[in-house]
Write a structure and sequence with these properties.
3-stranded antiparallel beta sheet, alpha+beta, 6-stranded antiparallel beta sheet, globular
């Protein structure tokens, strides 16, 4: 992020052609409930539910080559950290391997029943955060890969993550399958419930965390219920003030983000030989341009903050190597800080198998996809396009760094707890798909029996085997020197 560039507004969200607002709006065809149900049954005739279990990765598939291809556009010095994080466990590898699974899903049959997809709907990409109304909600929380596509791709990504996490815990096959089935069954039954509801009822549906704990808490062991309550309580403390205390120091009476290379590096330390004042003048201009992508009332709020410092911050597993920045914003005084995160948005991994996004700006693709899938989104969620010091154009999306965020670690769950958590993820994913896809057609396809979830469980077990082989392939590449790995970061 170095020079000012237009944010690139102008496309209209939605499935099918994501047409520019400059073109004539397309006529929307409104099918009857009966016609939509018939569409789902026709899809099931073309692709039986049992076919959900099919998996045939290409014979010449090279997982390491695909990861190296992704690395070509990333910060070279950070790629070894990404590999190091992926090699901590098969589950961590899976988190970083969204491209690998996208390629494999593209090689399988699909229903053709589309919805806005998360694109990377593994268990760790669900969690709790604060809504604008100051409720703690549970929802999907990572949309870097969002794109319209067959609804089942998200379900398969979620299901395989559950199987892989269970293997990592050393669970028996029956325990793992029970959790996978819980997620897919909850998806199916929730979608059938949503199919009966009104459009507005579906749109307003959300999962309140405290209500969920009240409903399901009695099914947890006392120690696990206590742990869950502690995670929820901790989430409420993960806000801008907590981030400010952890990430900043004071230099000559001015707050500055603390350097912790290579994970946190102030921008002036990364870009040598430049006028720092001029650099920050340009960055502030970028922030002003990004404001145009927000609702007018939120622009007014953001304008009350001043950007005072900026640093690159390494985040996640699969995202490591993409350019991610944190911006320290200062309000009315030293007790009014806020952090924004600007994260690079590349083409979705699904684009090579589902077709290119109609959005010219991938930051806008992420933002509009997130708004479409989440019940409530961050009030400062917006996008930007910049030209870096290397002269290359890059897209970014921005949001608050922390706003009551909390997560549950799948690799620390017990079988009963994971089955319950998997069910919440399944419901949440169904609600997200019901907002954008044809929920009546999808529900009709899924049917009233358990065939769907049993086939999904078979797929998850088979894909976990593929993931194990891919994990070994990357480990072997590290040993041979084909890839460089930096662990412990």
């Amino acid at each position: 992020m170095a020079t000012t560039k237009s944010a690139g507004t102008g496309e209209t969200p939605g499935l099918g052609p994501e047409a520019s607002t400059a073109t004539k709006p397309q006529k929307v065809v409104h099918l009857s409930r009966e016609e939509r149900a018939a569409k789902g049954k026709a899809a099931r005739a073309a692709m039986p539910l049992a076919a959900m279990a099919d998996l045939q990765p290409a014979a010449d598939r090279d997982p390491v080559a695909l990861l190296e291809e992704q690395a070509a556009t990333r910060v070279p010095d950070l790629v070894p950290i990404r590999y190091g994080r992926m090699l901590t466990s098969p589950f961590a590898f899976y988190r970083g391997g969204a491209l690998l699974m996208a390629v494999d899903l593209g090689a399988t049959r699909s229903t053709g029943l589309k919805a806005q997809l998360c694109g990377d709907a593994h268990m760790s990409n669900f969690g709790v955060f604060g809504s604008p109304e100051r409720r703690l909600v549970f929802d999907a929380n990572d949309f870097d890969e969002t794109l319209p596509g067959p609804f089942e791709w998200d379900v398969k990504r979620l299901a395989a993550s559950i199987e892989i996490a269970g293997r990592g815990r050393g669970w028996k096959p029956k325990e793992r399958r029970r959790a996978v089935v819980a997620a897919a069954a909850r998806y199916r039954t929730a979608m059938r419930d949503f199919a009966k509801q009104t459009n507005l009822a579906v749109w307003y549906a959300s999962l309140d965390v405290e209500a969920a704990v009240a409903e399901f808490g009695s099914q947890l062991r006392p120690d696990r219920l206590k742990l869950t309550q502690e995670i929820i309580a901790k989430a409420r403390t993960r806000d801008s003030m907590q981030a400010f205390a952890k990430l900043t120091t004071t230099v000559d009476g001015v707050p500055r983000i603390k350097a912790d290379p290579p994970l946190v590096v102030p921008v002036e330390d990364l870009i040598g030989g430049v006028d720092v004042e001029q650099l920050y003048h340009q960055i502030r201009a970028l922030v002003r341009t990004y404001r145009r992508t927000l609702q007018p009332d939120r622009r007014v709020l953001l304008e009350q903050f001043e950007m005072v410092h900026m640093a690159r911050k390494v985040v996640g597993v699969g995202s490591v190597g993409t350019r991610a920045w944190i911006l320290l914003m200062q309000g009315v005084d030293g007790a009014d800080p806020m952090f924004l995160q600007a994260k690079e948005a590349n083409a979705s991994v699904l684009e090579r198998v589902a077709g290119a996004s109609k959005y010219a700006n991938h930051g806008q693709r992420v933002v509009n996809g997130q708004h479409l899938m989440q019940a409530s989104s961050d009030i400062f969620l917006g996008w930007q396009r910049t030209v870096g010091v290397d002269g290359l154009e890059r897209d970014f999306y921005l949001r608050q760094l922390r706003d009551w965020k909390g997560s549950f670690d799948p690799e620390q769950m017990l079988p009963a707890g994971m089955a319950m958590y998997a069910g919440l993820c399944g419901w949440t994913l169904a609600r997200a798909h019901a907002r954008s896809g044809d929920r009546v057609a999808i529900a009709s396809y899924l049917g009233g029996k358990d065939t769907f979830e049993e086939a999904i469980a078979d797929f998850a077990a088979a894909y976990a085997d593929v993931n194990d082989r891919d994990f070994t392939a990357l480990a072997d590449a590290a040993v041979s020197g084909r890839v460089t790995v930096e662990s412990g970061l």
